[in-house]
Design a protein that fits this description.
7 helices, elongated
Length: about 120
């Protein structure tokens, strides 16, 4: 096992290629241990250089709606009337605590994500 820190894009490519070769190694082998350590190093490098921002609450709701193949009308029980759903999703109205509670259950999103602040449109 010859593992070193991933400092450059070239190091990253080499690590990914090696990880690809040993990814399915039998647990308890040297290759399996190497894959575990290499995976941590790759993850750390990706967090620093390829981090993905967490979506704001409205974007998260829209993403989950798409994943669940929901339409705006499907969120009426959680948000309120049809116009309320439209106003929330178009950022003209903020989510309330009750809406957040309901959406957390319906969409299986964390309340921590939904309580984040976001800007309304004019």
């Amino acid at each position: 096992m010859n593992i070193k820190p991933i400092k450059t894009e070239s190091d990253y490519d080499i690590a990914l290629n090696r990880l690809d070769k040993i990814f399915d190694a039998k647990v308890g082998t040297k290759e399996s241990d190497e894959a575990d350590v290499l995976g941590l190093l790759v993850d750390e490098y990706e967090q620093k250089h390829y981090s993905i921002d967490v979506p704001d609450p409205i974007e998260a709701i829209k993403i989950r709606m798409e994943e669940m193949q929901l339409k705006q009308v499907d969120l009426i029980p959680e948000i309120g009337g049809k116009s309320s759903v439209s106003e929330v999703l178009s950022r003209k109205r903020k989510l309330t605590i009750d809406m957040i509670r309901n959406l957390t259950n319906r969409l299986n999103l964390s309340a921590g994500l939904l309580i984040k602040d976001y800007k309304l449109t004019q």
